[in-house]
Specification:
The complex is a heterotrimer. Chain A is α/β, with parallel strands linked by helices. Chain A contains 13 helices and 8 strands. The longest helix of chain B is centred in the N-terminal third of the chain and has 20 residues. The chains are: A alpha/beta, B alpha/beta, C alpha/beta. Chains in contact: A-C, B-C. The interface between A and C is medium-sized, with 28 and 26 residues.
């Protein structure tokens, strides 16, 4: 047992973790961003990125129509090109889960997961009872994945036991029906030491994936933060034999951004993490840029946004 | 008929943009030959307020840029000024009534002054900072740090050089500036702002107002977000009044002689001393 | 297993206009060597000849020094300081404009990865000129009194590891201080110096202020021994540095010497481990380990040694060795056959003396000069690989138990150029910095250079400093030092 779940044991474990030097971490992330990914490797990376996209809509104004259009996009990102892979998942609020699941199944996307944000996303400010209900609702509606948020207030005020418990409870609800992504909201944690600690806390409590952000706060998935989280899953695997996934979300808008993420994975956690079961990218506008870049690689010309669908 | 010139409109320079005065007022500027040249904006206290807001918001990014980067931008200003020499010469001749030879000397000195201060940015703390040998197992160092927002009242003449030798040292140290040009000789200041706007200078670091120092000085003196003032263009009486009111937030107020000196940079800077123990 | 292989990402060579041959740059013009001798410079990654380079012998050296002296007496020492500064600003700006061209030529001639030339060497070189341009008219503030004077004509000899950057470190402060120079680039890397000569022409620099004479060690000796040189500035091996010190002992010449090192990189148990691993890798594998201040001795606190070595080995297997012109290459070619031989020779003593060698699997190209990134564990202080400068991508790993022991081992060397400290505890970092006998101490970072930061060594790592306010001292006369 690495930790026994008690506040004391958790605190000790977290305190024993090696510190992160911010300037050093930034500099490693910056160096990896200079990798030049061209031609065949670019083509491979684009398709891999597409298959890793958690195509997301999390707006107050979301409607059945919007969600259905998104599902259509998820299954067939480029209507003119059947070779384009399907995305990894659809990510919606939990009252849209049923609509999404039904639509995806209808369109031939039964292999595309529906991820629901839960636990009073994005703020996480609600009672545990509400958070459990929120999660159960999504599971009942057919969600295959739950993206929960940690209680940042509890974390920042030192109540790591509470954060741990909450994740454990939500994981229990998920059972084997759904995989659990734990959103750390790195923009609110601020320091890389906090990101490292929260990553371990989430993994120890049972997370299947650790996720950077809700997308509602900036900064979100900066290269340095993703680097620190990839180091955490790498080292956690050595410690326990369990492979935990990583999902950056927020601010990844262009193909260049996405490819930089894949390079980070490749040279930090390693090639085994380069598949959708261990790495996802939470995004919306990114998909169209990936498609445009894909067209360019195929045809040799810069494509225009007119040639990809607005959904 | 010979070709008609397209005359320039002289507006304020605030937050990287060229707005007119919110008051809608302008005033007449005549050349040395008493002929009309332009109607530059007559800045109001609200324009001043807006300029200070712009300066305040730009200040921290500018102060946190690397000194090397600041030096590069100041040097770029010199490059662009050099390219616009003729325009400055024409303006100076028309306004001050001096010969083009004298105007040329002025612009050359102005450009060389920018270059001089540009070269100070990344050397300042190695000359004015120090590692202090305290008695005890402590690392103790002192380094200069930018003050914040500095207001400048530019001298009447020389109308371009006077602006440059007060403005360059203020921003070399990482401060943001609100410069009030000379009432009678304002035009070079606005043309300079055009140079600054095209020199990679982040918006809001330099703001230039044209108007009456008699009207603006009291507001500058009382403004609690202005940290320092160079009173070159104020009369002795105006300076005293400003110092009196400025005492409310202990403004750092200075009047300098005309020479170039790193003291003009450090006068508008704070000194921070840090202690750190040395031990295992 | 993974499909994420990085396809070739070559930088285009088209931008590099390398002439078939180059003369010597003397008196503002390219001239043929008096005896018409020449030698070839090659690309160490492919062994192909890049250009035919003029060979300067004693007569050519004399011409260059005369040209420098004339320029000093008639023009440069009379010129107002701010105008001198403006020439340096021009040079800096032109270097920035032609940055890509310089980077490509540097990589072709030296063998270092294009990413390093592009992102490190060239920008730093331009920055050195920019920084020193600003000193030209501020010499009163250097700390040597009012109106310090230049020393006169300076002979400068630079190494092959950072050709353009070393040129910038020498020429920028020399000119800013009012001196004129005769500079001899390294035999295997003359090209960017010759390109620099073109930049001097484009900047309108008065004839003779900068002279570039290409050649070998004999050329260098002729320069050092020339009677009309006032000062020598040399970067290179300790052995040659000592020879220079001997040559000038009975003369009035002063010298700054930037020589070898065998820097210790100390990793304490409270270090930020992942960043320390990056720092270790950077410390010894950056620039193929051809770095005088390389962190070539890793001193690990014993209680974290295993963990760090595990991570280090994993990290080393990510190092991409190969074509320097590929933008993804991390470790380029060894600069010459001679240097490769030297690396092999000393490293082999590691095996012979009982240390344990490890390298990740690398596919090395068939042509050119290559050495895989290598670590030796089980090294003791007496091993040759712990004492001698290898100047290649070879790291010797030792351990220590207490901070005091770490410091003692770190200082137990005739060198004293640089050192690294990895600890998250501020007071410990400052304590270690105080104890270490090295001229440049990097805490929680490594191989960081800046024109504003003085660089130079203790003990047999040399004399004097380069960069910063202190670096100007070597190029100015002071009130108090007797002119020998």
């Amino acid at each position: 047992m690495i930790v026994d779940g008690s506040e004391g044991s958790l605190k000790k474990f977290l305190a024993d973790l090696a510190p992160v030097d911010q300037v050093g971490a930034d500099s490693r992330a910056a160096m990896l961003a200079t990798r030049s990914i061209k031609t065949t490797s670019k083509a491979w990376a684009i398709d891999m990125a597409i298959s890793m996209v958690d195509l997301t809509t999390l707006e107050g104004a979301d409607s059945p129509g919007k969600v259905k259009a998104l599902c259509s996009k998820a299954v067939r990102p480029d209507p003119t090109d059947p070779t384009v892979p399907m995305v990894g998942a659809i990510c919606v609020y939990n009252d849209m889960v049923k609509i999404a699941r039904t639509e995806l199944n209808t369109l031939g996307g039964k292999d595309i997961a529906v991820a629901a944000v839960a636990t009073a996303f994005p703020s996480g400010r609600a009672s545990l009872a509400v958070k459990k209900l929120d999660t159960q609702d999504a599971l009942n509606a057919g969600a295959n994945e739950i993206d929960m948020v940690i209680d940042r207030g509890a974390f920042l005020s030192g109540r790591v036991g509470e954060v741990f418990e909450e994740i454990k409870i939500i994981k229990q609800l998920c059972g084997d029906k759904a995989h659990l992504k734990v959103i750390l909201e790195t923009g609110e944690l601020v320091t890389y030491d906090n990101v490292r600690k929260a990553s371990y806390l989430a993994m120890l409590a049972g997370a299947d994936f650790i996720k950077t952000s809700t997308g509602k706060v900036t900064p979100a998935a900066t290269a340095s933060v993703v680097l620190v989280m990839l180091e955490a899953v790498r080292d956690y695997f050595l410690l326990t034999g369990n492979k935990i996934g990583v999902k950056p979300a927020g601010g990844i808008r262009t193909t260049k951004d996405a490819i930089k993420q894949l390079v980070l994975v490749n040279e930090t956690a390693g090639p085994e993490w380069l598949n959708p079961s261990l790495f996802r990218i939470g995004a919306s506008a990114l998909l169209n840029d990936l498609l445009i870049q894909r067209i360019k690689l195929r045809t040799g010309h810069y494509a225009s946004a007119n040639y990809v669908t607005m959904d | 008929m010979s070709r008609l010139d397209v005359n320039k409109t002289y507006k304020l320079f605030i937050g990287g943009a060229f707005p007119r005065s919110e008051s809608g007022r302008v005033y007449e500027v005549k050349g040395a030959n008493k002929k009309f040249i332009a109607n530059p904006s007559l800045a109001s206290r609200k324009d001043l307020r807006d300029a200070v807001v712009a300066a305040k918001s730009a200040h921290s990014g500018w102060a946190n840029a690397t000194a090397f980067n600041r030096g590069q931008i100041l040097y770029r200003i010199a490059e662009i000024m050099e390219g616009r020499s003729e325009q400055f010469i024409d303006e100076i001749c028309e306004l001050e009534g001096v010969t083009s030879k004298a105007a040329k000397i002025q612009i050359e000195e102005a450009i060389d002054t920018w270059v001089w201060y540009s070269g100070w940015c990344d050397k300042l703390s190695s000359v004015t900072g120090s590692l202090n040998q305290v008695s005890g197992p402590f690392y103790n160092f002192t380094s200069p740090e930018a003050l914040g927002v500095v207001a400048i009242f530019a001298e009447n003449k020389p109308s371009l050089l006077g602006v440059v030798r007060t403005l360059a040292p203020v921003i070399a140290g990482g401060n943001a500036a609100v410069l009030i040009a000379s009432e009678s000789y304002p035009l070079s200041a606005i043309t300079l702002s055009e140079v600054i706007a095209t020199s990679d200078m982040p918006a809001g670091v330099v703001n230039i107002l044209t108007g009456k120092s008699s009207e603006l000085a009291p507001w500058v003196g009382a403004h609690m977000e202005i940290d320092g003032v160079d009173v070159a263009g104020l009369s002795k009486k105006q300076e005293e009044e400003l110092r009196l009111v400025g005492a409310d937030n202990l403004k750092r107020v200075f009047r300098f002689s005309s020479i170039n000196h790193p003291d003009r940079i450090t006068s508008f800077m704070e000194l921070k001393t840090v202690w750190h123990p040395i031990g295992i | 297993m993974s499909g994420f292989e990085y396809a070739n990402a070559p930088e285009s060579k088209a931008i590099a206009n390398i002439d078939n041959s180059y003369g010597l740059f003397i008196g503002g013009k390219f001239v043929n060597p008096k005896k018409g001798k020449s030698f070839n410079t090659i690309n160490p990654a492919t062994e192909e000849i890049l250009s035919k380079i003029g060979y300067a012998d004693r007569l050519d050296v004399d011409l260059a020094v005369k040209s420098a002296r004339t320029a000093f007496t008639k023009i440069w020492s009379k010129m107002p300081a701010k105008e001198r500064g403006k020439y340096l600003y021009r040079i800096a700006r032109i270097m920035q404009e032609r940055a890509r061209e310089f980077a490509v030529v540097e990589t072709l001639d030296n063998g270092k990865p294009i990413r390093e030339s592009r992102d490190t060497d060239i920008p730093l070189a331009a920055a050195h000129f920019f920084y020193h341009a600003g000193w030209a008219d501020k010499l009163d503030y250097v700390g040597l009194g009012n109106k310090p004077k230049p020393v006169g004509v300076v002979g400068q000899i630079i190494p092959w590891n950072f050709p353009l950057l070393m040129l910038a470190w020498k020429i920028a402060p020399a000119l800013a201080a009012g001196n004129t120079v005769v500079l001899k680039p390294a035999e295997t890397t003359p090209l960017t110096a010759l390109l620099f000569a073109q930049v001097c022409q484009q900047a309108g620099l008065p004839d003779g202020v900068v002279n570039i004479i290409t050649g070998d060690g004999v050329t260098g000796a002729a320069l050092v021994n020339h009677p009309d040189i006032n000062k020598i500035a040399f970067t290179g091996s300790t052995e040659v540095g000592k020879a220079i010190a001997r040559s000038i002992s009975a003369t009035k010449k002063s010298a700054t010497l930037e020589l070898g090192g065998k820097a210790a990189n100390l990793v304490f148990d409270d270090a930020a481990i992942d960043e320390a691993v990056e720092g270790i890798v950077n410390g010894i594998f950056f620039n193929q380990g051809h770095v005088c201040c390389a962190g070539s001795r890793l001193l690990l606190q014993e209680n974290i040694a295993d963990e760090v070595l595990e991570k280090l080995k994993k990290r080393m297997s990510l190092i991409r060795v190969g074509d320097p012109m590929d933008k993804n290459t991390d470790l380029g070619a060894i600069n010459s056959a001679e240097q490769l031989k030297r690396i092999q020779e000393i490293s082999n003593t590691g095996d012979a003396q009982g240390a344990n060698r490890w390298s990740p699997e690398c596919k090395l190209p068939s042509k050119g000069f290559w050495y895989p990134p290598t670590i030796f564990t089980g090294v003791s202080q007496s091993h040759r690989i712990a004492r001698e400068e290898i100047f290649g991508p070879v790291l010797s790993v030792l351990t220590f138990r207490t901070p005091a022991e770490g410091i003692e081992k770190a200082n137990n060397t005739m060198y004293g150029l640089s050192a690294g400290i990895w600890s998250d505890k501020g007071s410990k970092v400052l304590w270690a910095a105080k104890q270490l006998k090295a001229g440049v101490i990097w805490s929680n970072t490594f191989n960081k250079f800046d024109p504003a930061s003085p660089f130079g060594g203790y003990k047999e790592s040399g004399w004097g400093r380069e960069g910063g306010r202190h670096g100007l001292a070597g190029y100015l006369t002071s009130d108090v030092k007797a002119s020998k």
